[in-house]
Design brief:
86 residues
Length: 86
Amino acid sequence: MSNNEDLILRLRRIEGQVRGIQKMIEEERECESVLQQVSAARSGLYRVGISYVSANLRQCVDSMSNCPPDVMEKVKKLAKSLAKFG
């Protein structure tokens, strides 16, 4: 599965979470429960953003032909670290 396909699946899952939050608010569910779901959706979006940036950074680095190998390797490691952070 490509990175973009994975991101789309994650976004669809988050979309379902948001619909669930809307329903919870309509049903006047407890504030704590609603906020817990909002936090989960926000975390999911954050992870999608980190993954997206990391993948694009890797693509940019892979396309750099004049970059010294040690610098390229350092940037690749940073991209991996960024992906793990999310």
